[in-house]
Amino acid sequence: MRWLLVKDxxxxxxxxxxxxxxxxxxxxxxxxxxxxxxxxxxxxxxxFLNQVPIGQTTTNVGGRDVDFTDYADQFxxxxxxxxxxxxxxxxxxxxxGDALAALIIPPDTVERLNGGLGQAExxxxxxxxxxxxxxxxxxxxxxxxxxxxxxxxxIGEVAIEDLRILAEGGEIATPLGRQTLLGLKRARDxxxxxxxxxxADAPERDGLEQVLRFAxxxxxxxxxxxxxxxxxxxxxxxxxTVLSGSRTPLDAFAVALAVAVSLLFIAxxxxxxxxxxxxxEQAYGRLVRGLVSRAALLAEKVVLAAACxxxxxxxxxxxxxxxxxxxxxxxxxxxxxxxxGALGCSALGVAIGALAREVRAASLLGLLVALPLAxxxxxxxxxxxxxxxxxxxxxxxxxxxxxxxxALDAAVNGADPGVWGPAAHLxxxxxxxxxxxRVALRRF
Amino acid sequence: xTTEARGVTKRFxxxxxLRDVSFSVGEGELLAxxxxxxxxxxxLLSILAGILRPDxxxxxxxxxxxxxxxxxxxxxxxxxVRENLRLFARLEKVADPDAVVARMLEQTGLxxxxxxxxxxxxxxxxxxxxxxxxxxADPPVLLLxxxxxxxxxxxxxxxxxxxxxxxxxxxxxxVFTTHNVAEAERWADRVLxxxxxxxxxxxxxQALHRDxxxxxxxxxxxxxxxxxxxxx
Lengths: 444, 232
Ligand SMILES: Nc1ncnc2c1ncn2[C@@H]1O[C@H](COP(=O)(O)OP(=O)(O)OP(=O)(O)O)[C@@H](O)[C@H]1O
Ligand SMILES: [Mg+2]
Known about the structure:
The complex is a heterodimer of chains A (444) and B (232).
Chain A: H1 2-14, H2 16-38, E1 45-50, E2 58-61, E3 64-67, H3 68-78, E4 80-83, H4 87-95, E5 101-105, H5 109-115, E6 123-126, H6 130-168, E7 170-174, E8 177-181, H7 184-197, H8 205-233, H9 250-280, H10 283-288, H11 294-324, H12 331-356, H13 359-376, H14 386-398, H15 401-413, H16 420-440
Parallel strand pairs in A: 1-4, 1-5
Antiparallel strand pairs in A: 2-3, 5-6, 7-8
Helix pairs in contact in A: 1-11, 2-9, 3-6, 6-8, 7-8, 9-11, 9-12, 9-13, 9-15, 11-12, 12-13, 12-15, 12-16, 15-16
Chain B: E1 3-12, E2 15-25, E3 30-34, H1 41-49, E4 56-59, E5 66-69, H2 81-91, H3 97-108, H4 123-135, E6 141-145, H5 153-170, E7 173-177, H6 181-187, E8 190-195, E9 198-203, H7 205-215, H8 219-229
Parallel strand pairs in B: 3-7, 3-8, 5-6, 6-7
Antiparallel strand pairs in B: 1-2, 1-4, 8-9
Bound molecules: adenosine-5'-triphosphate and magnesium ion.
Magnesium ion binds at residues 41-42, 71, 145 of chain B.
């Protein structure tokens, strides 16, 4: 078996084009998947027209200055702005497709916020591109909601402060200038003192006692109002809990995915190719008549393909790791996941090679099997009907890609369910495909 | 008897490739199997070599003790001549692989091409390596399937002299097929005529030739006449 391994490595060394393709092709696929998964869609291009006169962008909320352009700046982080000067230009930009949407801030916005002329309004124009519209809508909605929330938080804080002054007394800004308020507490104290000095049968007593009761009730009411207002300024806070599986951030998952795809393609194509080559070179007959057993020949091909694909995947992982900062302390787990994954995928490869019998047919069959496997493993639950999802789960369990991906995700990112379960699954699959290949060799 | 086939029958689906074939080869004997295309010569040698299993009947020797030179070169085109020989010498577990490889390079006259990839060799030179691989382990029985068909006359002569030497000096039993009837007549101790999977004749070439001698035709014409007389 050692000499056969040496022989196959010599052959590979001399098949530079083949090996080059075998390495470049899966890495290219892996990179594409990685890029597609780790980069969200581009920022939408939105035409922006601010009709509020320069210098009038601040509004005063209860004595607090709020600069409107702060919100615009936040907004520009989420979109790619196309500044226009008139409403017509904004409409043109959307109609011609230069921008996916236009956001128009009317001139009276700040005035409305200022003077309480009712709600301020902004205008949004969309074009009809169905694919992108929902995304633009979502982006603009989210940004407007953020601005709304920030404004209402400011208003809420001002109101809470005003309520406190109403209760405790102090200075307050009004359209008529700064005024000193007595405050309910001090009004109550003044009343109590006055009442104490009045004779028991004084006719003013009844009215004053009513005012005192009102002041006390109002204070109790204000005590409740403050937390209620706080709640209103941020009615819902999100607390996220992931129930099953440890969630891996998308780009960390993309690393595991890219490596798993390379592993699958290299292992399957190499294992099926080198096995079919034995038959194509007519050497198979010579080998199995006493020189090596069929099982040993299969084992040699599995070891060869697993070692090559495992090393290529490890190199890829280290390369990505050098740029993106992975946890090098998990290296032993990487090796476990890579070894198990490489063995599982290589065993699938020899089964394909034994069934296909010719190098070209084996490569074709290998691609035909590997591509949909990589695709199926990524179908999320909930994206397809329940029955289909069950079928996909079964298919994923019968082929080594999904468990290899799970093992790698666990090894690299610490995702559930850990490395060992998928690794055992992979070894079981390797044994199964080994047996299938051995049976197929009967008519090789 | 160094090797023997008894009642061997082989079918491929409905087609009967061999029907109840029996023969034996003695020590140091050269047996030529001749017959038209599709007669079953390659099938017969493959069964003797252990590549195919007969549907009925049996052969007497395990494949490990038999050297086999297939009709199609069974060597790696991406390896050099020397690497091919060394690989199979090691797999055959010969005592001193390097010495055996050197001897085979000498024997095949390919010493100057030893480090060329096999794929860059001519068809005949590839066949010389194919033959050399079958001889590496000094097997007691040697099967050669049309070994000389792509060789030039000089290499052909060298091959048969070498094979004849193996039989005479080492007592190797040799079974070979050929379409060159004159070659069979010249080198074989006995010929076995196979047509449509059946043995039509076994015996010394002279016996097949006897009529021909009288009528003054050559061995090939006699062979064709013989086949025609048998309805082939
Ligand atoms: N693997 C196979 N599957 C089906 N039929 C086969 C197979 N191998 C051989 N045959 C058939 O068996 C018969 C004998 O073939 P074989 O190769 O033994 O002939 P041959 O005498 O060696 O011919 P040639 O002189 O052309 O080499 C032929 O009819 C052939 O078509
Ligand atoms: Mg033949």
